[in-house]
Each structure stands twice: as structure tokens, then as C-alpha cells.
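sry for the spam today, last one i promise. C-alpha cells for design, 208 residues
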């Protein structure tokens, strides 16, 4: 359960998406290499998993399933691919892979309730089953829902509880920048080195 919670938190999705998230997490454990081998190969005897290994909820592009009218009637000059998020792998009985992925379109997520206790969204969200996805991770993976999820679940009246805001909300003193702390420590060290210890001082202490 802890792994599924972590997957959902990182993706910025509420707990009602646990069926997809738990399936993803278990599959990633099965294809993980341990001592040069993985459970996937031990089960099927066909080597490592051949599909893409990408995080749950990250940004992707895909060709939408045109069995739905919404996607058949798009402007012919629009891009054939649409932005979306990755929702896992379609696995068949026997834990075999169909070479297909689960994805959701960004435009279907605009009005999604990202409250951590939201219910039933997994049943209402349109999930596409596709064979080809494109992931642009040259600058790292992007999680489109994470910022909105954090604003919804980790804020007080819309004010994020980061350190800078906490100084205003609770009257706490502002944090000392790390650079200033290091500079003060360096100055103190230089002063200490420039001062002679008492036994090296030429002044003698005694009766006068």
C-alpha cells in the first residue's frame, strides 16, 4: 500500500485512482532487475520487459482512440497527437503484456477534482488504450497535475505552506540564507586564527 500511495502522491492524483496506481507499482516491481534478473523474466522466460519504463502520471503525447466521436471530429489541421499523462500498462491474464499503455488526455483533466478524498473519478475519466506514446524527458519528467494537486491539498486558503509563507502566516523569523551562515562561519574562523593564544602573548602576568 505504501508504494501505491507514493505513486499517487508523486503523480498528483487522488486516492481513488489506486486500482491503476497499484497495478503500475506491482508491475514495476516485477520488471525490476535484482542480481541481474527480474521476476518478469523468471515468469515468462523471454528476457527483460520490452516496454517503456516511465513514471505514473508523467506527461506524454499519444494518438487518441478515434472510436469516440470527440476524437474523430477534431480539426484536420490540428496535431494528430495530443498531450496526456501516463496511467500504466495494459496487462492480460497470466501477467502478459499486450504492448499497450493506458493514458489520459490533458483536456479531459481540466475539471478533475484533485482533492485527496475525491471519489469515483477513476470511473468517470476517459482512459485511452494505445500502442505508441512519446515521452519528452530530456529535462526530466514532468507531472502536469502535481502543482494543482499540491495547491488543493497542501495549502491554507490557497496559500502554500512553504517556508517564506510560514514567516508571514505564523510570524516566524525568516530563515537565514545558507550563504550568510557560511560567510559568518568563515569570518569567525579567520578571527580565531588571527588571535594569539594566551601562552604566546609577550605580556607577563605576575605581581607588580
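last one done:
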Amino acid at each position: 500500500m505504501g508504494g501505491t500511495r507514493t505513486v499517487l502522491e508523486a503523480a498528483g492524483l487522488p486516492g481513488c485512482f489506486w486500482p491503476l496506481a497499484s497495478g503500475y507499482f506491482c508491475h514495476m516491481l516485477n520488471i525490476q532487475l535484482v542480481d541481474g534478473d527480474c521476476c518478469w523474466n523468471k515468469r515468462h522466460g523471454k528476457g527483460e520487459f520490452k516496454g517503456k519504463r516511465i513514471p505514473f502520471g508523467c506527461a506524454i503525447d499519444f494518438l487518441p482512440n478515434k472510436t469516440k466521436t470527440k476524437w474523430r471530429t477534431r480539426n484536420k489541421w490540428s496535431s494528430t497527437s495530443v498531450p496526456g499523462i501516463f496511467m500504466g500498462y495494459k496487462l492480460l491474464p497470466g501477467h502478459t503484456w499486450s504492448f499497450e499503455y493506458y493514458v489520459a488526455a490533458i483536456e479531459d483533466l481540466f475539471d478533475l477534482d484533485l482533492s485527496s478524498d475525491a471519489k469515483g473519478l477513476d470511473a468517470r475519466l476517459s482512459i485511452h488504450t494505445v500502442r505508441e506514446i512519446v515521452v519528452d524527458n530530456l529535462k526530466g519528467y514532468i507531472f502536469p497535475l502535481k502543482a494543482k494537486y499540491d495547491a488543493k491539498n497542501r495549502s491554507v486558503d490557497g496559500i502554500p505552506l512553504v517556508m517564506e509563507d510560514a514567516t508571514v502566516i505564523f510570524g516566524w523569523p525568516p530563515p537565514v540564507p545558507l550563504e550568510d551562515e557560511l560567510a559568518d562561519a568563515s569570518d569567525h574562523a579567520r578571527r580565531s586564527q588571527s588571535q594569539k593564544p594566551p601562552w604566546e602573548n609577550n605580556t607577563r602576568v605576575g605581581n607588580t
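The longest strand covers residues 82-92. ok im logging off now
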